[in-house]
Each structure stands twice: as C-alpha cells, then as structure tokens.
C-alpha cells in the first residue's frame, strides 16, 4: 500500500470499542453527561480511524477498576437472622394465615350449630405444620453449615 492511499473508515468493532471506553469513563464519573453524549456522537459519526481516535485521545486506554464495595458481614450462623429469612417467613406466614382462616370458619360453624363439631381444621394445620417444621430444621442446618455434605 502506498502512503497516498485514502484512509479507510472505522468498522463496527472499532466504534464499539471506543463507545465502550466512553461508557466506562462516564460510569467512573470522568465524563459529564453532555461531554459523553457529544463524544459518543463523534465516535459514531467518525469517517476515519483518525476521527475516531480523536474522540477518545485524551482518555486513558482503560479506566481504573472500580473500588470494591464494602461487603456486609455475613450473618452469624444460627443467629436471629435465620428467623428473618424470607425462605421461612413467607411459608410460615401463609401457614398461619390459612390455618387462622380455617379455624375461624370452623369456629363460626361450631358456634352457629351448622357444623358437627369435628375439628377438621386440624387436617390442614397438622400435616402442613409438620412439613414446615422439617423445612425449618433443614434450613437451620444449612445456615449452621451442616448441610449434610461430607467434610474432608
């Protein structure tokens, strides 16, 4: 190729790389909204590689990695945090609500003389409650780290 050959336009990978670089710098706070928009417009309107490079020339080639966020301390195994776990609160709340409704219906029927007094609500309360107790104990074991896996 000769020195006088016309410069070719940038391809999509080059434009995408430059746009990604601008996005990274914008996310890091090094570019304002207006400057980001105008540079991004220049990147996508660039007719040559030189125009494309001019849009990102004064930026470092790779932005600094984001600083790690402070992670909250893990909950104490078996502590009160397990009792607030949605995996337990939601099913126990449903169990309580459904059984309260069943008992209320039974009580209304019993007090008005419409029912025969048989405590049928126990057939909902009992088996479901037993299953919930086993689920709670299993989750407690997992929270304590005794998930049943062999330790080596």
From TrEMBL:
<feature type="transmembrane region" description="Helical">
    <location>
        <begin position="92"/>
        <end position="114"/>
    </location>
</feature>
<protein>
    <submittedName>
        <fullName>DUF1707 domain-containing protein</fullName>
    </submittedName>
</protein>
<dbReference type="Pfam" id="PF08044">
    <property type="entry name" value="DUF1707"/>
</dbReference>
<keyword id="KW-1133">Transmembrane helix</keyword>
<keyword id="KW-0812">Transmembrane</keyword>
<dbReference type="InterPro" id="IPR012551">
    <property type="entry name" value="DUF1707_SHOCT-like"/>
</dbReference>
<keyword id="KW-0472">Membrane</keyword>
<feature type="transmembrane region" description="Helical">
    <location>
        <begin position="120"/>
        <end position="142"/>
    </location>
</feature>
<feature type="domain" description="DUF1707">
    <location>
        <begin position="11"/>
        <end position="60"/>
    </location>
</feature>
<feature type="region of interest" description="Disordered">
    <location>
        <begin position="57"/>
        <end position="78"/>
    </location>
</feature>
<feature type="compositionally biased region" description="Pro residues">
    <location>
        <begin position="62"/>
        <end position="78"/>
    </location>
</feature>
């Amino acid at each position: 190729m000769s020195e006088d050959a016309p410069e070719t336009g940038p391809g999509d990978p080059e434009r995408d790389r430059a746009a990604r670089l601008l996005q990274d710098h914008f996310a890091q706070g090094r570019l304002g909204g207006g400057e980001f928009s105008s540079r991004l417009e220049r990147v996508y309107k660039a007719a040559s590689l030189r125009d494309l490079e001019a849009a990102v020339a004064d930026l470092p080639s790779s932005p600094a990695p984001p600083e790690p966020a402070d992670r909250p301390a893990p909950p104490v195994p078996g502590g009160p945090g397990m009792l607030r776990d949605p995996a337990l609160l939601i099913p126990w709340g449903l169990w309580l609500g459904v059984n309260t409704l069943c008992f209320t219906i039974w009580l209304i029927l019993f007090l008005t003389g419409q029912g025969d007094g048989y405590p049928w609500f126990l057939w909902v309360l009992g088996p479901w409650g037993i299953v919930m107790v086993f689920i709670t104990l299993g989750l407690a074991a997992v929270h304590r780290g005794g998930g049943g896996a062999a330790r080596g």
